[in-house]
Amino acid sequence: MYAEKHHLVPSCEGGKEKALVCIDCGNQVHQLFTINELRDELNTIAKLRSHPKMQMWIKWIRRRNTFGVCMKTKKKK
């Protein structure tokens, strides 16, 4: 599983605290929310997880029965 350290407040806004999330979930956060929303309203894991848009994403991703959707694997060249 590939995971990344994801800034809870975007680093361009001075965020220092990080959380470990899978790459797909980290990307989805940025698809759903603006930097201002992340900085002002959704600056903790609890707040992100409780947001209705993220709840829909979490519900969807948990129904996937393959690891390729949420957990990236290295492709051999």
State the strand order across the main sheet.
Answer: 1-2
| Rg over CA atoms | 13 Å
Main sheet specs: 2 strands, antiparallel
Overall domain count: 1
Indicate the structural class: alpha+beta
- Residues in β-strands, percent: 5-15%
User: Could you give the distance between the termini?
Assistant: 18 Å
SSE topology string = EEHHHH
Low-pLDDT stretches:
71-77
The DSSP helix count reads: 4
Secondary structure: number of strands: 2
Instruction: Estimate the helix proportion, in percent.
Output: 40-55%
Describe the global form: globular
Q: Determine the mean pLDDT.
A: 79
How would you sum up this structure in a few lines?
With about 80 residues, the protein is of the alpha+beta class. It has four helices and two strands.
Task: Furnish the topology, listing elements before pairings.
Layout: E1 3-7, E2 18-22, H1 23-32, H2 35-40, H3 45-50, H4 52-63
Antiparallel strand pairs: 1-2
Folded structure, characterized:
- The two termini are 18 Å apart.
- The chain has one domain.
- Helix 1 (23-32) runs antiparallel to helix 4.
- The protein is built from 4 helices and 2 strands.
- The chain is an alpha+beta fold.
- Helices cover 44% and strands 13% of the residues.
- It has a two-stranded antiparallel ribbon.
